[in-house]
Design brief:
The structure holds two protein chains of two kinds. By secondary structure, chain A is an alpha/beta fold. In chain A, α3 crosses α4. In chain A, the strands form two sheets. Chain A has a six-stranded mixed beta sheet, sandwiched between helices. Chain A is globular. Chain A has eleven helices and ten strands. Chain B is mostly helical. Chain B has a domain of 172 residues. Chain B is built from twelve helices and two strands. In chain B, α3 packs parallel to α11. The chains are: A alpha/beta, B mainly alpha. Chains A and B meet through α2, α3 and α4 of A and α1, α9 and α10 of B. Bound molecules: adenosine-5'-diphosphate and magnesium ion. Magnesium ion binds next to α1 of chain A.
Chain lengths: 279, 270
């Protein structure tokens, strides 16, 4: 499989009860790119992600991972390439202990017990969850569960990782930790990253590109600096602009000027303010 | 904690105990699974009125628990927890079977009471053997042991999923019980009809979750074969363990050991 790109073309999907969850969705994700799929609740984000590793099969259109179409015959390969972190870690952890759960994937990849053990320990360390090995998933905090679930995916060394609402339901500390982890993966540049979220503050910080979803269709697509300053567009899809954007726009309105590059993150905001003060 | 929560927690605790590193824990899962099976067959095959000859079988779980550093208090509490089931199974025997079987002094004891006690002993022995097996092998270890012994993949996978499903069911039940308790006042909302609805809803929810869990397994390369990180090596220690205990079980099953011991002792005295 070459170069971990994702190509979705004309994808359509309806649930058995008739709900049309996706309609004519097309987008491309390049090598090492971090893309946020944003949309309100029910926009179809989870449904879209579930097509990336064949949990759901395209009813119309195609999904290609590194040039290989997602189909019955290619599922095993696809699932080695695309890892998926579910929204609810309770759906993801199924072995009696964290360690066994994280080692489950590597064992299925045909690694020896010793290799799988090492892969599991490495992955747990990478997510900062060393020491949770012997824990029973049912009795961990939501944050710990999420870290364990991510470790289980990392241990398989996928080329693309899809996160469904990675920081929802987490306390600020764990949310920051998960975000830091995603940021780290992004810096390494070896993974294609797809994240679904309705938290545009988060998307602003970790996405190279944003796909805006509304009622199963793509409304807009582009760099966050463009999309997130289009407040009417965001309002139209039921989302609220990032806090930094709101503050910056208010600042521009009050001062009556719009100096230079628009900030997306708090760091950029502070830098822009400092510069603006000097100007 | 509610009773249900406690039960689940203890089930999880059994698996935690399996992380201990003792000679018993290091034995190959297959050795422990086979030995436990022989044990169960021997205990279960005793006659309806046998009580005394079963007692020596307590040796096996006690020795394993001691060697495996298992907390006896915890195991004892689990035994007490299953006691009501054992009582329920045997409680009608005394009423149905009134023929006097033996005399303790002037007191005649009916066959019903003897078989009732026999059922209790059987229940305790088999339960504690199963608990000790899981606490020294882990549930997934037992599954892999079964798999390597030729039990089909499908059954082993079912077993493993069933184990996870027990937790899912328990957790969902607790959530719904809490949600209902929060919104029902006096006796309203607590009736039987509500229970029926909750049960239906519970099945739907757990069914959906089980489906997602299965997807998660597929996502991580599950192809129907359960593999776990546990180097399996059947050494001479495992052979010795399995054959030694099994031989002892057979001897204890065939000969009435307490009786022989008693005779031996009285022989010594006289
Ligand atoms: N299993 C299902 N059966 C029927 N409809 C569903 C199912 N799952 C989701 N939907 C519907 O599909 C639409 C998209 O859902 P989803 O992808 O979960 O949205 P999001 O993740 O963006 O919140 C919603 O209208 C939702 O009600
Ligand atoms: Mg969703």
């Amino acid at each position: 499989m070459s170069h971990h790109t994702i190509d979705v073309t004309g994808l359509g999907f309806s649930y058995p009860d008739g709900t049309a969850a996706l309609e004519d969705v097309s987008f491309h994700i390049g090598h090492g790119e971090s893309v946020a799929i944003v949309g309100a609740n029910g926009a179809g984000k989870s449904t879209l992600l579930m097509h990336l590793n064949g949990f759901l099969m395209p009813a119309r259109g195609t999904v290609n991972i590194g040039g290989t179409p997602v189909a019955k015959g290619t599922l095993a390969d696809i699932r080695k390439t695309v890892g998926m972190v579910f929204q609810d870690p309770d759906d993801q952890l199924f072995m009696p202990s964290v360690f066994e759960d994280v080692a489950f994937g590597p064992m299925n990849l045909g690694q020896s017990p010793a290799e799988a053990r090492q892969a599991a320990l490495d992955a747990l360390e990478a997510v900062g969850a060393s020491g949770l090995e012997q824990k029973i998933p049912a009795y961990m905090s939501g944050g710990e569960k999420r870290l364990a679930a991510i470790a289980g995916v990392l241990a398989m060394r996928p080329e693309v990782i899809a996160f469904d609402e990675p920081t929802s339901d987490l306390d600020p500390v764990h949310a920051a930790r998960v975000e830091g982890l995603v940021g780290e993966l992004r810096r390494q540049g070896e993974y294609g990253l797809v994240l679904s979220t309705h938290d545009l503050d988060l998307a602003a910080r970790i996405a190279d590109r944003v796909v805006l979803l509304k009622e199963g269709s793509i409304i807009a697509e582009g760099p966050p600096r463009e999309l997130f300053y289009d407040v009417d567009l965001l309002k139209g899809v039921g989302l609220i602009e990032p806090r930094v954007v709101r503050l910056w726009r208010e600042l521009c309105r009050r001062t009556g000027r719009d100096p230079g590059p628009r900030p997306l993150t708090e760091t950029e905001f502070v830098a822009a303010l400092a510069d603006g003060g000097r100007a | 904690m509610s009773k249900l929560e406690e039960g689940l927690y203890d089930l999880g605790r059994l698996d935690r105990l399996a992380f201990l590193d003792t000679p018993v824990h290091r034995l190959d899962p297959r050795a422990k699974v086979v030995t436990t099976l022989v044990y169960l067959v021997c205990v279960v095959s005793f006659g309806k009125y046998d009580v005394l000859p079963m007692l020596p079988f307590v040796l096996y779980p006690v020795v394993l628990a001691a060697d495996g550093a298992l907390p006896l208090g915890f195991l004892a509490r689990k035994l007490i927890a299953v006691a009501p089931f054992a009582v329920l199974v045997g409680i009608f025997n005394p009423a149905l079977d009134r023929e006097v079987l033996l005399h303790l002094g002037s007191l005649g004891i009916s066959g019903g009471w003897v078989s009732f006690v026999s059922i209790l002993v059987r229940f305790f022995l088999t339960t504690i053997a199963a608990l000790v097996l899981i606490a020294t092998t882990s549930f997934s270890g037992v599954c892999v042991g079964l798999r390597r012994l030729g039990v089909p993949d499908v059954m082993v996978t079912q077993l493993l999923l069933l184990y996870r499903y027990i937790f899912v069911l328990g957790e969902e039940t607790m959530r719904m019980a809490r949600a209902r308790a929060l919104r029902s006042f006096d006796d309203r909302g607590m009736g039987l009809a509500v229970y029926g609805q909750i049960l239906g809803h519970l099945l739907l929810r757990t069914y959906a979750r089980a489906g997602r869990l299965y997807q998660a397994m597929l996502a991580r390369g599950f192809d129907g074969e359960v593999r776990i990180v546990r180097a399996l090596r059947f050494t001479w220690r495992d052979v010795a363990f399995t054959s030694g205990w099994s031989a002892l079980f057979v001897v204890m099953r065939v000969y009435n050991v307490p009786l022989l011991l008693g005779r031996f002792m009285t022989g010594l005295i006289s």
